[in-house]
Write a structure and sequence with these properties.
The protein is mainly β. Helix content is about 10%, strand content about 35%.
Length: about 350
């Protein structure tokens, strides 16, 4: 039988050292070979070029000279923005519909329409006004061979007013407008205009006087609020108040101006020129009335003529609205006037 051999610790230790020496020798050989390769010409590792920053010299464009209005280059049709207070929107002139009873809106979408500002330290004097008494007025509407009717209700309650218009247009369609607000040094101070046309939802303009702006229930832009600004219904009563306040000094060539804002976001500067007195039929008789004319400011705008009676509380005996160009006039003729209390 063979005898079992016991492991020899000395021999195992010797084998381990031999293996370690062999590994070290191999590593040294590889290092020597790599060093020789690095010394060969053209064998160096290519380096990436350093990041190069170049300064680009951009020349600013020379400022353009201001445009000169000539006969071949007409002046702009809409006012340019003065104060960047509202969100800018594109300009769009849309023909107003010829069957609107209230002054038809030309959609001059907000360019921050703003009256011409005076030099610093100067303020335009506010014209005197005399608010008319609470009144109910009935009108006959006429356009060509078609007719309609309208009722204008004006109510004054202390420091507040409420103004409503209900009309059946010559085309047969209904129109409903409501204006409410108070009074200030410039006359009527509207707070809200609600407008319903052609069976649509109500649109509103909100006069945020504490913030000095006008906002709308539909359009998301806003307009700056100037003293004396009116809505598309209150403008007529404001005109009555201005004529009442200036009656003694009224003469040909006098101008009365105001900004007028619609419930759908349109805004226009309305200038009325007094063109003397004319005779108008009222209740079957001829009556003298002040004739005021607002000429259109741009194409598809309204020409508005108003005949205000000095003896009937300065309310209109007649109103005529004509779209320019090409519109057929819409005439409002007063057939009933019923004041309920003295003017204030």
């Amino acid at each position: 039988m063979h005898r079992l051999r016991r492991p020899n610790p000395a021999r195992a230790h010797d084998r381990w050292w031999r293996a370690a020496l062999l590994v070290v020798a191999v590593l040294l050989a590889h290092a020597w070979v790599l060093q020789l390769a690095a010394r060969r010409p053209g064998a160096a590792v290519a380096r990436a070029p350093a990041l190069e920053v170049r300064r680009l010299m951009v020349s600013a464009e020379a400022p353009q000279p201001p445009a000169v209005t000539t006969a071949e280059q007409p002046a702009p049709l809409v006012p340019q923005p003065v104060q960047a207070k509202a969100t800018r929107a594109a300009l769009a002139l849309k023909p107003a519909r010829t069957d609107a009873a209230a002054p038809m809106e030309v959609q001059v979408l907000p360019t921050d329409v703003h009256p011409t500002q005076l030099p610093q330290g100067q303020t335009a004097p506010l014209p005197p006004t005399r608010v008319p008494a609470s009144t109910e007025l009935m009108f006959t509407l006429q356009r060509g061979a078609q007719s309609g009717e309208a009722r204008l209700s004006w109510r004054v309650d202390g420091e507040r007013y409420a103004l409503s218009l209900h009309a059946t247009l010559p085309s047969g369609r209904e129109l409903e407008q409501h204006s409410e607000g108070g009074f200030d040094n410039a006359g009527l101070a509207p707070l809200r205009l609600a407008d319903r046309k052609r069976g649509r939802d109500v649109r509103a303009a909100n006069f945020q006087r504490e913030h000095g702006k006008v906002t709308f229930s539909g359009p998301r832009w806003e307009l700056p609020l100037e003293a004396g600004t009116q809505d598309r219904l209150s403008w007529l009563v404001q005109l009555v108040a201005l004529i009442g306040g200036a009656n003694e000094g009224l003469r040909d060539g006098t101008e009365l101006a105001m900004w007028v804002v619609g419930a759908r976001g349109a805004a226009s500067h309305w200038r009325f020129e007094v063109r003397g007195q004319q005779r108008v039929l009222f209740d079957g008789q001829a009556a003298d009335a002040w004739w005021l004319v607002r000429e259109p400011a741009h194409p598809y705008d309204l020409r508005v003529e108003v005949w205000l009676s000095p003896t009937q509380g300065h309310w209109p005996l007649k109103v005529r609205q004509t779209q320019i160009p090409g519109g057929e006039p819409l005439d409002w003729s007063l057939r009933q006037y019923a004041p309920s209390e003295p003017g204030t």
